[in-house]
Specification:
The protein is mainly beta. The chain is about 10% helix and about 55% strand. The protein contains one helix and eleven strands; from the N terminus they run αβββββββββββ. Strands 1-2-3-4-5-7-8-9-10-11 form a ten-stranded antiparallel barrel. The longest helix has 20 residues. It starts with a helix and ends with a strand.
Length: about 190
């Protein structure tokens, strides 16, 4: 019985790697441990183009009756910096106008968290970032902002409903996070290529 040369070479190199690893005092990475577990690839599933429907509360954190404005269009997510960052380009319109916006998402490896910064292209201003990450398939991001000159808390949730569907919700709190009022709901469905 003959053993092919490649099998001998592969077995020999594997044994040499194990011996070198044992001598250095570190374990060889297993397939499970070599995957990135710190969250920097959390948004990989979202890269691509999506059909988007958006509902926006016209006057959040007010005493006026709730009036929801509706928009529809596309959301395109592009990877940046080896997928450790991405940008969302939103273009939706409806009876009340058009929203053109960007959302820049950056991974902070030292803090093992994401920052999400929104910019409305109409005024070109960046909102303060919200920070967080994913746990059990749900992204939770929190930050501070202002609404009509008063300080508020902001919560942004991302729920991956299925492989081809996601839900995004933004809520504001005027009482330091005790109660939340949802003011933005977006449902995205992947555009098949």
């Amino acid at each position: 019985m003959t053993i092919p040369y490649r099998r001998i070479l592969t077995a020999g190199l594997s044994a040499l790697l194990l011996l070198a690893t044992a001598a250095s005092g570190t374990a060889a990475p297993s397939p499970a441990s070599s995957t990135i577990a710190d969250g920097q690839r959390d948004f990989n599933w979202e890269i691509g183009t999506w059909r988007t429907t958006v509902k926006v509360l016209a006057d959040p954190l007010s005493e006026s009756p709730d009036q929801w404005l509706e928009f529809a269009g596309t959301s395109t997510v592009r990877a940046l910096a080896g997928r450790r960052a991405n940008v969302v380009e939103l273009d939706v319109s409806g009876p009340n106008g058009r929203i053109e916006a960007l959302n820049l998402r950056l991974y902070e490896p030292q803090a093992q968290r994401w920052s999400l910064t929104f910019v409305n292209l109409r005024d070109g201003l960046l909102t303060p970032a919200v920070y967080g990450g994913f746990r059990d398939g749900v992204g939770e991001f929190y930050g501070d902002d202002q609404l009509d000159g008063r300080p508020i808390k902001v919560r942004f949730l991302i729920v991956r409903v299925s492989k081809d569907e996601a839900r995004f919700e933004q809520a504001f709190s005027a009482d330091d996070g005790t109660t939340w009022e949802t003011n933005w709901i977006a449902l995205d469905r992947r555009v098949k290529s």
